[in-house]
Amino acid sequence: MMDKIMNKLGYVVIGLIVSALLLILVIGVRI
């Protein structure tokens, strides 16, 4: 059970990091 929760948290963290990188790239391109 804990493994499933940890996997979900891992995917959420990866998603947040990827979205943050995309936002930085978009802002960098617009400037």
Q: What does it look like?
A:
The chain crosses the membrane at residues 9-29. Keywords: Membrane, Transmembrane, Transmembrane helix. This protein has 31 residues and is mainly α. The protein has one domain (1-30). The chain contains one helix and no strands. The protein has one helix at residues 2-30. The radius of gyration is 14 Å and the shape is rod-shaped.
Write a brief caption for the model.
This protein has 31 residues and is an all-alpha fold. It contains one helix and no strands.
Strand content: under 5%
What would the average pLDDT be, to the nearest integer? 92
Relative helix content: over 70%
Tell me the distance between the termini: 46 Å
Number of helical stretches of at least 4 residues: 1
Main sheet characteristics: none
